[in-house]
Write a structure and sequence with these properties.
The structure is a homodimer of 211-residue chains. Chain A is built from 11 helices and no strands. The first copy, chain A, has 211 residues and is mostly helical. Chain A has a domain at 59-198: Tetracycline Repressor, domain 2. Helix content of chain A is 69%, strand content 0%. In chain A, helix 6 packs antiparallel against helix 8 (123-150). Chains A and B meet through helix 9, helix 10 and helix 11 of A and helix 9, helix 10 and helix 11 of B. Chain A binds a DNA duplex (30 and 30 nucleotides) through residues 15, 17, 38-40, 48-56, 59-60. Chains A, B: It comes from Streptomyces spirodelae. Chains A, B: Keywords: DNA-binding. Chains A, B: InterPro entries: Homeodomain-like_sf, HTH-type_TetR-like_transc_reg, HTH_TetR, KstR2_TetR_C, Tet_transcr_reg_TetR-rel_C_sf. Chains A, B: Residues 15-75 form the HTH tetR-type domain. Chains A, B: This is TetR family transcriptional regulator.
Amino acid sequence: MTTGEIDESFGGVTPDAARRLLLGAVRAFAERGFHATTTRDIAGRAGMSPAALYIHYKTKEELLFHISRVGHERSVAVLEEAVEGAADSAERLARAVRAFVRWHAEHHTTARVVQYELAALGEEHYARIVVLRRRSEEILRGVLEEGVRSGEFDIPDIRGTALAVMSLCIDVARWFSPEGRRTPDEIGELYADLALRMAGHRPAGLTSSSG
Amino acid sequence: MTTGEIDESFGGVTPDAARRLLLGAVRAFAERGFHATTTRDIAGRAGMSPAALYIHYKTKEELLFHISRVGHERSVAVLEEAVEGAADSAERLARAVRAFVRWHAEHHTTARVVQYELAALGEEHYARIVVLRRRSEEILRGVLEEGVRSGEFDIPDIRGTALAVMSLCIDVARWFSPEGRRTPDEIGELYADLALRMAGHRPAGLTSSSG
DNA sequence: CAGGGGGCTAAGCGATCGCTCAGTTCCCGG
DNA sequence: CCGGGAACTGAGCGATCGCTTAGCCCCCTG
């Protein structure tokens, strides 16, 4: 079932028809983009007539907003859960990157809509989404700042590095394919290591500085 | 002039009307996406009637292909020129990332079309673009491989790291804004440093291994 | 069994899409 | 001064768009 990866995020949506429309819209938006997707296509994937869409959602854009909001909330929650209860900053960063990357790979269909269809949102809807996006940036930047304070990390440009790590994770949604040679777990592991390198992580016990 | 950043890539296109259409299409595709852009909009930006578009290009998709082809050729050329004549692998990697990032920032309008509208290309056109994309991947992977051979780099997963560095550079096109707090040069400098860290670069003279 | 409201469909509205075509303008060789 | 072709426009074609409306079905309540 190709929708397996999406069920997790939208499983709680009711009624059933509204959820089926959401799932159809996610796949359609991810494949063709918001503007190229017709309401007839979405309704067809949900096994309904085009008119049925407007019983559950006011407009096509509202459907996009629902997807974007739930998707952003999930990805922020994933980040928040990941950084909880870690022993040190290095573990916190590794966990955060692992989880964030895994989410973008496993839910790449949803993630593509979340990350690349922002411009199709209406003005007020966009403003509400931006708040959620800022939240995830702050979480990651906080991890880097704390690591620098504790001496675990060596980062000349914290803000820039935080943005780069975020960017690296997000771009996974663009190129990831289930048919590719790597699983989401493997990519998460690799990227966690790369993020630690970007943060200038010094393994415990080795605190001598060069130069 | 907002088209200043685009002129460089498409300055050689003749006749004048064909170039103006290209410039209009680049901006329109970047702002709204290929499918959401109307031929009337493109022609309007070029100061012509909608029908004039079809004198210079067979279809709207052919316009996209021209933009994508020229854009990919430029970005590959930028990479190739960057890696020439560098003293060692570290300098080669730093130059490559600096140049590639700068191109994606300075030409972010073109780069967005190049990187995010691939799916709108026709089948044969897409196949021709993929060849160009593979080329830039190979260039970067070659730099990393050589650095590992020479002992300058420490990279457990060369293929994955090459993909990650590429991904990091490409994603600049998504978030870069001229109104942002960083110039393309500054981002290039930061990212070159981050790429060296990702490659496990050991500064010359320090060849001792840990463990 | 009657009454009514939510979920759904068939049909279609006005608008707009990519693209075509007949016709006008203008430049350029002879 | 003339003939012809390239560049371009106004008008419009058939198709399709997001969305609406009128009405049907079916289940719930009493």
